[in-house]
Amino acid sequence: MKIISIANKKGGVGKSTIATNLACYFAHSGFKVVLIDADEQQSSMIFQESRPDDAVQFQIVSIITSSIFEEAEKFKVDYVIIDVPAKDSPVSRASVACADRVIVPIQASQYDILASEGTFELLEKISASNEDFKFAVIKNMMMPNPQFLLNKEIDEVLETYRNRYGLHIFDSSLCYRVAYKNSAEEGLSVAEMKGEKYKKATDEFSNFYNEVLKWV
């Protein structure tokens, strides 16, 4: 079993969207997966309530106490995904400490990257004491236009952090698209939505998922 936490002390970076989509992708691939919602906002639990009965099902549970380490170890599945709260708390630290892998979503702004430095520092300390522990950044909510100047600035800042903290940065990136909001409201991944307007989001998330499979 592998535990994958989606974490960043900075809020509004799309942790729940990535956690729910990843869980759906794992389930569709035939893996046994559990999604733990450790955030008091309960976005992943709301996702479950909206999920259609005829969709591929997987377990989503709420654990908002620091006993999450012991609880996560009880599941007999291939993957446990934890949607981590966006704050420094005992629950957040336990959610990260119990993970084999941590994915840090970074929003498309230098401010968000700087605000995430505390997360990088914590993960670096964990990796120093656990050689099997890995963490990586996924660029999220990027502007779809690859020529957008801010996208290039983000790459430059992340390169500095790569050298400082030994960051792994996924080659894939996820853009700011209404498709993610619409699919979340339906309790579905972007790949489960019908229509051409979901193709770009599906393609980019599929690329990210394939990278995650190789990285874990």
Explained architecture:
- The longest helix is centred in the last third of the chain and has 17 residues, at 149-165.
- The chain has one domain (2-205): P-loop containing nucleotide triphosphate hydrolases (Rossmann fold), CATH 3.40.50.
- It has helices at residues 15-28, 43-50, 68-72, 90-97, 110-115, 117-129, 149-165, 178-186, 199-215, and strands spanning 2-6, 33-37, 59-62, 79-83, 101-107, 134-142, 168-175.
- The protein is globular and about 45 Å long.
- It starts with a strand and ends with a helix.
- Strand 2 (33-37), helix 2 and strand 3 (59-62) form a beta-alpha-beta unit.
- Strands 3-2-4-1-5-6-7 form a seven-stranded parallel beta sheet, with helices on both faces.
- By secondary structure, it is of the alpha/beta class.
